[in-house]
Amino acid sequence: MKKIGLTGGIGSGKTYVANILEKMGYPVYYSDTQAKELCNEHPLIQKGLLDLFGDEVFKDGLLNKSFLSKQIFTTPELRETVNSIIHPIVRSDFIEWVEKHSSHSLVFNEAAILFETKSYKNFDENVLVHAPLEIKIQRLLIRDQTSQEEIMGKMNAQWSDSKKLALTRYQILNDGKAPLLEQIEKVIEKLNQ
Question: pTM for this one?
Answer without folding.
Answer: 0.89
